[in-house]
Amino acid sequence: MMQSVTLDDTQAIAIGAGILGTGGGGSTYLNRLRLENELRRQGRAVPILQADDVPDDALVCAVGGMGAPTVSNEKLQAGDEIHTAVRALENHLRQKIHAIVIGEIGGGNALGPMVAALQLGLPVVDGDGMGRAFPELQMDTFMIYGAAPAPFALADSHGNVSIFTRIGSAEQAEEFARSLTIEMGGSAALVMPVMTGAQLKATIIRDTVSLAKRIGDAVLKCRAGSIEPAETVAALCQGKVLFTGKIIDVERRTVGGFARGRLIISAFDDYQRQLEIDFQNENLIARSNGNVLCTVPDLLTLVTLEDGEPIGTESLRYGLRVAVLAMPAPKELKSPAALAVVGPRAFGYDVDFAPMPGDLL
Amino acid sequence: MMQSVTLDDTQAIAIGAGILGTGGGGSTYLNRLRLENELRRQGRAVPILQADDVPDDALVCAVGGMGAPTVSNEKLQAGDEIHTAVRALENHLRQKIHAIVIGEIGGGNALGPMVAALQLGLPVVDGDGMGRAFPELQMDTFMIYGAAPAPFALADSHGNVSIFTRIGSAEQAEEFARSLTIEMGGSAALVMPVMTGAQLKATIIRDTVSLAKRIGDAVLKCRAGSIEPAETVAALCQGKVLFTGKIIDVERRTVGGFARGRLIISAFDDYQRQLEIDFQNENLIARSNGNVLCTVPDLLTLVTLEDGEPIGTESLRYGLRVAVLAMPAPKELKSPAALAVVGPRAFGYDVDFAPMPGDLL
C-alpha cells in the first residue's frame, strides 16, 4: 500500500489514472504539471491514508473538477479552486475536514485532489468513488450507497463559491451543479459529498490510487523494454485488448457542458472490420457490426499502440494508432443499485449490462 | 408613517405596488392572496419599521422573487421559499436577521416579503432598494451604493437552497442567480444583500411601502367616485399621463429568464398617433414617431383607463384601453453611479437619460 505520493510517482499515477479514466476525468497532463509544481513548492510528499485508518466520526469530503474536458484543457485554472471550496465548506459546517477523498480516480481528477491536499495540509485517502471516471456527479459509490447530496460546494477560477445547503437528490445536484459550471465558464471545482469516516468506509472503492500507480509502473516498464503495453495493462486489470487499429472518424460536440461524440476505429489488416465507440466525456459503449462488445460500467480505454499512453476523448483524432482496452468494473459498480445509476440504460442505451468476467480490484 | 400592514391595507398596497412596478415585479394578485391568507392564518399584522429605527449593528436582508413574471404566474410556489432562504443564511452567518427589507417595491415583490416576515416573526422596513421594479438584481440602491454581493441565498419551491459565499461582483451574482433560477424552473426566492443597519440607512429609498399605500388609496377613492384614476395618480407621484389609447400590438417572448417584448398603443382619436414601449420584465423606454419620451430609471406604468388597475407586462394584450403613466424616479436612482447601472445605456439604448422634472419621493 502506498504511504505517500512524491515526484517519483507522478508520471506513473498520471498514466494509470488516464487508463482508468476511460477517456474522461480531465487532462492528466495539466494536473500532473500542477501536482509536480506543488510538490516542489512545498518540498514534501502527499500523505496517503488507508480508508480504514479514517476515524468513524471524522469528516472527509470527495473533491474533483466538474466540466467538459474539452473546456478544462483550454480554460486556465486559478489552481486553488478545490482548496477554496473545501475551506468554504469547513467554515459553513464549523468542522474541520480530516482527509481528502478522490471523487473519481480516472484522468486528471486523480491528481487535482492531491494538489488541493498539499495546499490544505491534508492526507488523501487511497481509493475513490468510481474506480474509473463517469460524466455525472451522482455516478459515484458515495451517492449510490446513500451519502447526502448536501451540503456541496462549487468554486470557479475567479474565486466565486456557492454552497448548496439543501438539495432534494443527487440527480438534482447534478443539474444545478452542471448549470452553474456552465455559467462559471465550463469548468469548476466540486466538493461533494461530505461524509463521516464510517460512511466513507462503507462506500469507497479501496486502493485505486495504488492501482493507478501499479498500472502506470507497468506501462513505464513496457516502454523501457520497447514492448507494446496494452496486453500487460489488460492482464493487470483482469481485462483484455478488445481491438487494435487506426481511428478513422471522430464526431464530437460540446453540448450541455459535456464532450459528447462517437469514434470509429478500423482494423489494420481489414478496413471493413471496425469498432465504434460512443462517449459522453467518458467512453460508454463499444459496438462492432451492431454487436455490443462492452458497456459501462465496465471500462473502455483507448491507449496509443506503441507506448500505452491513454487518450482522452478530447484528444481523439483521425489517424491515431490505438489499442482499445476493456476492463471489468469494480464490484461496487455492479450491484443492482449501482447499475441503475451507471449501467447502460442510465446512459440511454437499450441494452442490459453483460459484465466481463472478473472485477477490476 | 405606517406602523403595520393589516387586511385593510392589502388591496391598496397591491394597487400601489403594481403602479410602482412599471409592468414588472411579479403578480400582485397572487402575492396579495398569499399575504391575506397568511395574515388570517397568523391573526396578526405585519409590523412596519422605519429604516432609522434599525440599530446600526443589526443585520437585515433584502428579499424578493427572481424570475420572469410570465413564469411566476403559472409555476406554483411552495410559499415558504423566502423563509427557507433567510433561515439558511442566518444559519450560515450564525447571526439572526433583525428585519426584512423589500428588495423592490414594484409588483408582487412588495407583498411576498411581507408573507415571509410573518412566517419569520420579523418586521418589514418601510422602504426598498428600487422605488419601482427592475429586471436585474444588481439594479438596486444597496448594490449600487456598495453592499457586498455575498453571501446571498437562492431557494426554490422544492426546498433546494444555494448560498453563494464568495462572488466577484453584483453583475456576476446576477448571472449565477439567473442561470440557477432558470434551472430551478424559472422562478426562485432571492435573499440579497445582507446588510448592517448602518448600511441600510445609507442606501435605502425610504417610505415606499407608505407611498404604495397612498397611491392605492387614491386609486380606490377614484373608483368609489367613478373617476378615471390616472391623472390623480400622476399628480400624487409628481408625474404625468403620457398617453391614453388602446393596445394594438404586443410582441412578447420569454428569453434568458426574462419576459422581453414591445407593445404599441394607438390613440383613441387618431389611429396614426402611437406610443411604442419596450420591456424587459419592466417597461424600459417609450417612443413616439422615433422620439424618446421617457426612459428608465423614470417610471413607465400602464393602468387600465377606467379603474387604474396596473397592467403587468405578462398581462398585456390586444384591445386593452390604457393610460400610460410617466413618473420621475426617486433621486437615489439618478446619481451618475446609479445611472451607470439603471440608466437607458445599461439596457442597451443609445440615448442619454433626460429626467422628468421632480423626484418620486
Q: How would you portray this structure in words?
A:
Two copies of one chain form a homodimer. Chain A has about 350 residues and is an alpha+beta fold. The first copy, chain A, folds into two domains: about 5-205, 3-Layer(aba) Sandwich (CV3147-like fold); about 225-345, Beta Barrel (CV3147-like), CATH 2.40.390. Chain A contains eleven helices and 16 strands. Chain A has helices spanning about 10-20, 30-40, 70, 80-95, 110-120, 140-145, 170-185, 195-205, 210-225, 230-235, 335-340; strands at about 5, 45-50, 60-65, 100, 125-130, 150-155, 160-165, 185-195, 205, 240-255, 260-265, 275-280, 280-290, 290-295, 300-305, 320-325. In chain A, the strands form two sheets. In chain A, strands 1, 2, 3, 4, 5, 6, 7, 8 and 9 form a nine-stranded mixed beta sheet that branches. Chain A has a seven-stranded antiparallel beta sheet with strand order 14-13-12-11-10-16-15. In chain A, helix 2 packs parallel to helix 5 (about 110-120) and helix 9 (about 210-225) packs antiparallel against helix 10 (about 230-235). Chain A is globular and about 60 Å long. The mean pLDDT of chain A is about 95. The interface of A and B includes residues 159, 165, 172 and 182 of A. Strand 7 of chain A pairs antiparallel with strand 7 of chain B.
